[in-house]
């Protein structure tokens, strides 16, 4: 299968995965968050074929995660920038990065270092919290299908 | 391609995506977080072939995200449970769910309702914060490759 379709599945997670497209698309979003904007930059970073990269960029534009702008002074020159919807994937990307840092790299020799630009300090682990900011664990949260009445 | 390999890519995000496997695997983790443990429960929830489900469960066990236990009283009866590593995907899953709630469902008629079991209140949006709990936006964070010296 080239891409799995979850759009018939009533779930924000399944729908999100469907809109993001596939792992490559999430790595494109990662690179956009690191400041990349040009086709060539994504191409060099990801090492995938131009064909696949073109498809994935097109889909992210179609889904409103990236916007494509012509910034050429002389002739066409496309840039891809994150939209508000794309920037909102920030906690997803950071949570995934921190998970890998902890469980794959065991906190050592981390390939990407994340720091608060203002203070130079590391970013805190992303946590799920209640409305007052108290940390919630998996066991504290009820993930249920929508009730009949609410 | 059946699964994309990122394991030569030095990045916790790429490595995490490689370990999780594919979108189906992340939906299996979602279902495990909702309390599912049995092959039949995952099968009914996801509607994928038994063959694909067997492969994905096997890979999640191999990567240490799920553990398989024989809980049969009479004969073999397997259960799949999240390990500590699997439970740690909680912020990833919740961040993804909240993104879909906001950008795909626009906050209306949400298919899955997440509540704090203790208070019945909704879970707060997952945020990236600094060490003191101050929210950080994408522009506040420097995502750089590991420096030569640190």
Can you tell me about this structure?
With 150 residues, the first copy, chain A, is of the alpha+beta class. Chain A has one domain (12-140): Winged helix-like DNA-binding domain superfamily/Winged helix DNA-binding domain (Arc Repressor Mutant, subunit A), CATH 1.10.10.10. Chain A has helices at 12-20, 23-33, 39-46, 50-62, 84-87, 90-103; strands spanning 66-70, 78-82, 112-116, 141-145. Chain A has a two-stranded antiparallel sheet with strand order 1-2. Chain A is globular and about 55 Å long. Chain A starts with 11 loop residues before the first helix and ends in a 5-residue tail after the last strand. The relative contact order of chain A is 0.09. Strand 4 (141-145) of chain A pairs antiparallel with strand 3 of chain B, so a sheet runs across the interface.
How many distinct beta strands of chain A? 4
Q: What integer is the average pLDDT of chain A?
A: 86
Question: Going across the major beta sheet of chain A, what is the strand order?
Answer: 1-2
User: What is the CATH first-level class name of chain A?
Assistant: Mainly Alpha
As an assembly, this protein is: homodimer
Number of domains of chain A: 1
Task: Say what the CATH topology of chain A is.
Answer: Arc Repressor Mutant, subunit A
Helix content estimate of chain A: 25-40%
How would a textbook summarize the main sheet of chain A? 2 strands, antiparallel
The N- and C-terminal alpha carbons of chain A lie at a distance of 39 Å
Shape of chain A: globular
Radius of gyration of chain A from CA coordinates: 18 Å
Q: How are helices and strands ordered from N to C of chain A? A: HHHHEEHHEE
What is the assigned CATH homologous superfamily of chain A? Winged helix-like DNA-binding domain superfamily/Winged helix DNA-binding domain
Most extensive chain contact? A-B, 79 and 79 residues
Question: Helix tally of chain A?
Answer: 6
Which class of secondary structure composition applies to the elements of chain A? alpha+beta
The portion of residues forming beta strands of chain A comes to 5-15%
* CATH-level-2 architecture of chain A: Orthogonal Bundle
